[in-house]
Amino acid sequence: MARRSFLRYAGAGVAGIGLISAASSCSKHNNVVPSSGAIDVGSGDPGILNYAYALEQLEAAFYTQVMASPYSGISITETAYLTDIRDHEVLHREFFKAALGSGAIQALTPDFSKIDFSSRASVLGAAKAFEDLGVTAYDGVGYLIVNTTYLGIAGSIVSVEARHASVIANLLGVSFVGSDQVDSNSLNISNKPSVVLAAANTYLKTKISAKSFS
């Protein structure tokens, strides 16, 4: 997808072009390899963008695999929904990659060995876990974003992720506003990067850390 197309898709417009110009100046030393062997996303706004980029890489890889080998008995409606979600996640991934430029973390290698891609229950269960995790991840770092342009784009993307979570919940026949996602004040639950990455890293061969935001 051309850069202009996914910028327009993300709702970034002219402001997004400024985001790319600014974020591309991030240097690679923002992304360090701790002694644990994990790739650290860095600090500040660029670190948050890399954090989101890591999660979008994971989601894009998952849905690409889902559609490359659809589970048994997948319906026409499910195929349409999951194809749309795949395309959204790929656009999100490519947006962050372009925005970060030379400051982007490396391409990550997923590990989906725990998922049975031939099973509807396994695939949709994993999809729910990824989408719910993604929403709580964005909500968990939104308040740390300094640049208002970045914050606006993050808000646009997390709203799409929430739509994904709702669709997957509907396919599974479960509530999209369950107590595992919405608290007693009807506010979406948020998670710190340390919690999110502990879950995400179980599906990644290339481990990720976020020392500055833990």
What fraction strand? under 5%
Arithmetic mean pLDDT: 85
What's the oligomerization state?
single chain
Low-confidence spans: pLDDT under 50, at least 5 residues? 1-7, 9-18, 20-30
Radius of gyration: 17 Å
Helix content: 55-70%
By CATH, the topology is: Ferritin
CATH architecture: Up-down Bundle
Question: Looking across the biggest beta sheet, what order are the strands in?
Answer: 1-2
Number of strand elements: 2
Name of the level-1 CATH class: Mainly Alpha
Overview features:
Ferritin, 214 residues, globular, 2 strands, mainly alpha, disordered N terminus
Report on the structure:
The structure is a single chain. Helix 3 packs antiparallel against helix 5 (120-141) and helix 4 runs antiparallel to helix 6 (148-172). This protein has helices at 3-9, 13-23, 44-68, 76-100, 120-141, 148-172, 193-200; strands at 39-40, 208-209. The chain has one domain (35-213): Up-down Bundle (Ferritin). The longest helix has 25 residues, at 44-68. The chain is built from seven helices and two strands, in the order ααβαααααβ. It is globular and about 45 Å long. Helices cover 57% and strands 2% of the residues. With 214 residues, it is an all-alpha fold. The protein has a two-stranded parallel ribbon with strand order 1-2.
